[in-house]
Amino acid sequence: DIQMTQSPSSLSASVGDRVTITCRASQGISNSLAWYQQKPGKAPKLLLYAASRLESGVPSRFSGSGSGTDYTLTISSLQPEDFATYYCQQYYSTPLLTFGGGTKVEIK
Amino acid sequence: EVQLVQSGAEVKKPGESLKISCKGSGYSFTSYWIGWVRQMPGKGLEWMGIIYPGDSDTRYSPSFQGQVTISADKSISTAYLQWSSLKASDTAMYYCARSGRVDYFDYWGQGTLVTVSS
């Protein structure tokens, strides 16, 4: 199984801050990575896929990068509606899919 | 508009059986995979398994193989997740979600809360 480790598990930030979340795979996943945002009481929402491709309708302040085993989600200027929990998910080992443990972004 | 609408919350006793549903609309139901994801209270997302309604090809996470059954009825555009004997540890929110090729999930249902308690 490919394990996905996110860091940090939580962070506090202010509106306007640049925020970076990291996801590390236990083996190379060749950019087969998606990022989701989940707000309390809501279903997850797809933000990016193929590590850096923005899903339609997602604001451009969200971006993704990385290669091999290490990937990042960056929010260039944190907005009030961005306070949520973010998950990465690998699909390199399809059909065995794995989510990261999540990163909660809280208001400082 | 693509929609996945899940059945309502359930309260069950340990040992009981349960089948929850996920109805797709606004797209060709038989051309996309439907996956199921568990979220235990206060915890992260866990992929359980996935089905291709077109031919009922089904894959399971090793963690959930033998614990649940995933099925689909393409005539009514509905996928199912079922348990034959629930345990308290099955208490969780369950989401269905659409995938093009067993990769990422672009549309999600609203979730079904399952509570198992004596």
Outline the structure in words:
- Chain A has 108 residues and is an all-beta fold.
- Chain A contains no helices and 11 strands.
- Chain A has strands at 4-7, 10-13, 19-25, 33-38, 45-49, 53-54, 62-67, 70-75, 85-90, 98-99, 103-107.
- In chain A, the strands form 2 sheets. In chain A, strands 2, 4, 5, 6, 9, 10 and 11 form a 7-stranded mixed sheet that branches. In chain A, strands 1-3-8-7 form a 4-stranded antiparallel sheet, with no helix packed on it.
- In chain A, strand 9 (85-90) and strand 10 (98-99) form a beta hairpin.
- The model of chain A has no long low-confidence stretch (mean pLDDT 97).
- Chain B is mainly β.
- Chain B has no helices and 11 strands.
- In chain B, strands 2, 4, 5, 6, 9, 10 and 11 form a 7-stranded mixed sheet that branches.
- In chain B, a hairpin with a 5-residue loop joins strand 9 (92-99) and strand 10.
- The radius of gyration of chain B is 13 Å and the shape is globular.
- Classes of the chains: A mainly beta (108), B mainly beta (118).
- Chain A binds chain B through residues 1, 32, 34, 36, 38, 43-46, 49, 55, 87, 89, 91, 94-102, and chain B through 35, 37, 44-47, 50, 59, 61-62, 95, 97, 101-106, 108-111.
Give the arrangement of secondary structure elements:
The complex is a heterodimer of chains A (108) and B (118).
Chain A: E1 4-7, E2 10-13, E3 19-25, E4 33-38, E5 45-49, E6 53-54, E7 62-67, E8 70-75, E9 85-90, E10 98-99, E11 103-107
Parallel strand pairs in A: 2-11
Antiparallel strand pairs in A: 1-3, 3-8, 4-5, 4-9, 5-6, 7-8, 9-10, 9-11
Chain B: E1 3-6, E2 10-12, E3 18-25, E4 33-39, E5 45-52, E6 57-60, E7 69-73, E8 78-83, E9 92-99, E10 105-108, E11 112-116
Parallel strand pairs in B: 2-11
Antiparallel strand pairs in B: 1-3, 3-8, 4-5, 4-9, 5-6, 7-8, 9-10, 9-11
